[in-house]
Write a structure and sequence with these properties.
With about 110 residues, this protein is α+β, with helices and mostly antiparallel strands. The chain has a single domain, classed as Alpha-Beta Plaits (2-Layer Sandwich). The chain has 3 helices and 5 strands. About 10% of the residues are buried.
Length: about 110
């Protein structure tokens, strides 16, 4: 028992101070997708390849509306790969906690 305690004390602290100090994700980390509204052409490529069906495009009162729900997103990166206009990019952000479900939607609109 003392041998284990001695070994533990020699090793020191191995954990990070995560909540107080943000943990930086690696460069190739697939985090939250971000949509750039000015680049979106509403082509629908992202809708077609999304395996969890969390991206939708609809027409509402003369506007094209793209809705991305982070609730079911699996961060696979397929939407980023097929976006012809470069409107969707994966970020390194992974903290998605929210008090309401409405905060977990990204909605962009454009007049037709």
């Amino acid at each position: 028992m003392l041998k284990i305690l001695e070994m533990t004390l020699k090793t020191g602290i191995q954990t990070t101070k995560y909540p107080q100090e943000p943990d930086i994700a690696p460069l190739d980390f697939r985090g939250k997708p971000e949509i750039f509204p000015d680049s979106c052409t509403f082509c629908g490529n992202c809708v077609a390849v999304c395996p969890s069906n969390v991206i939708r495009i609809k027409e509402d009162n003369g506007e094209m509306v793209l809705v991305l729900s982070y609730c079911g997103c699996i961060f696979c990166g397929r939407c980023d790969e097929v976006c012809s206009g470069g409107a969707i990019k994966l970020t390194q952000e992974y903290e998605m906690a929210s008090r309401t479900k409405d905060d977990l939607y990204c909605i962009i609109r454009r007049k037709v």
